[in-house]
Amino acid sequence: MTKHRVVVGLSGGVDSAVTAYLLKQQGHDVVGIFMKNWEDDDDSEFCSSRQDFLDAASVADVIGIEIEHVNFAAEYKDRVFAEFLREYESGRTPNPDVLCNAEIKFKAFLDHAMRLGAEKIATGHYARVRQNATTGLFELLKGLDPSKDQSYFLHRLNQAQLSKTLFPVGELHKTEVRRIAEEIGLPNAKKKDSTGICFIGERPFRDFLNRYISKEPGPILDDRNRKLGKHVGLSFYTLGQRSGLGIGGVKDKGAARGAGDHAPWFVAAKEVEKNILRVVQGHDHPLLLSHRLDADNASWVAGHAPVPSTYGSKTRYRQPDSPALLGACPSATQFRLDFPEAQWAVTPGQSAVLYDGEVCLGGGMIAAVDPQD
Questions:
Q1: Cα(300)–Cα(317) distance, integer angstroms
Q2: Which of these is catalytic: 47, 198, 329, 360?
Q3: CB 45 within 8 A of CB 154
Q4: Distance (Å, whole) CA 324 – CA 91
Q5: Which residue spans within the chain are E strands per DSSP?
Q6: What is the DSSP string of 178-203?
Q7: pLDDT tens digits, residue range 353-368?
Q8: Spatial distance between the Cα atoms of 251 and 240, rounded to a whole number of angstroms
Q9: Cα separation of 340 and 292, whole Å?
Q10: Is 360 a catalytic residue?
């Protein structure tokens, strides 16, 4: 096995810690880097950056590697957070983790690592990289632990990035990663996994967004144009959302009430031009189901779109792969998917990602959705 100088992104979590340990055990020359991507409220109870760095430094000490603290906050604000706000203000629901991986962890971080003389970088993502023996192309594979696979968030990585990247824990299940961490006495072996968007942490999402996006209240209407209440601003809702709507049953006085009147309400559409939040009752309402989507801003791992065919697809993280027919792409950055089985709450701004078995082919941002007829 070829030995490399590998720069590992140490986040303070157990996955990146075990990543660094495994690479050191394999004989690589390992250096750790802690990426600071957010600094607006370092003193906040919700910001764990300071503790995360202390945890990362403790891990580096136990493993016996150097660690460097690098600030990418300016790049993050410009390349990820600004786009995050633009998308929300446009009525879409972005996924900043996808953009963070493409723009920060595998671009700004990769560039910095190369300047340090690295031959490879590594992170604690649950995914795998394989070079195809026939084509010579690098392939992005799902992690072996189906409950932790993170290839969805990595689908925008290209050949140049994958050729320099290692994902050691992608070959393991999470339970095995925890076991290794405890066995070698890592101080963060039992540390809880981070959840949610990195710059928001555990804080209430609406409170955070309210600091950056102006509110424009408007009506909440159902599919029969009955007004059920008032929304606080379209940016604060996402398709399929059930809680936090502030509405009860149907308001029509004198109308006969049926069992359906007590069914839960879900956000079905955001009509940005009219500032209307459209809601429907029942999880399987036709307006929540889609047989087609159009995507743009496409990025394909191989550098070109897959041939038209039926592939596995995800329109949100953690959902099982669903069959989708990819037609001829109208351009290098656009594609359309048709679903034999209707998909629930397909959300503009989120990513539509395609798979050929365990191979992640790439994907794009959902731009438009056709509700079920």
A1: 18
A2: 198
A3: no
A4: 25
A5: 5-9, 29-36, 66-71, 120-122, 127-131, 138-142, 165-166, 218-221, 227-231, 265-271, 276-281, 289-300, 309-314, 322-326, 335-344, 351-356, 359-371
A6: HHHHHHTT-TTTTPPPP-S-TTTTTS
A7: 999 999 999 999 999 9
A8: 22
A9: 9
A10: no
Domain locations in the chain? Answer: 5-205, 214-283, 287-371
Closest CA to 91 of 265, 218, 203, 246: 218
CATH number of the domain at 287-371, please? 2.40.30.10
- The pLDDT tens digits of the residues spanning 28-48 come to 999 999 998 887 765 555 557
300: phi then psi, degrees, rounded to nearest 5: -115, 130
Which of these, 325, 322, 288, lies nearest to 306 by C-alpha position?
Answer: 325
6: β partners: 30, 120
Percent of the chain with pLDDT over 90: 76
Q: What pTM does this model have?
A: 0.91
Distance from chain centroid for Cα 281: 28
Residues 296 and 90 sit within 8 Å (Cβ to Cβ): no
Q: What is the fold, at CATH topology level, of the domain defined by 214-283?
A: SH3 type barrels. (2.30.30)
Two domains, one topology: 5-205 and 214-283: no
- At the top level of CATH, the class of 5-205 is alpha beta
Q: Give CA 260 to chain center in angstroms.
A: 35
Residue type, 32: G
Among candidates 4, 58, 360, which has minimal Cα distance to 166?
4
- Give the span between the Cα atoms of 293 and 310, in whole angstroms: 14
Amino acid at 219: P
Kindly state the tokens that stand for 361: 């082919």
Contacts 24+ apart (CB under 8 A), 83-88: 85/212, 85/213, 87/349, 88/209, 88/213, 88/235
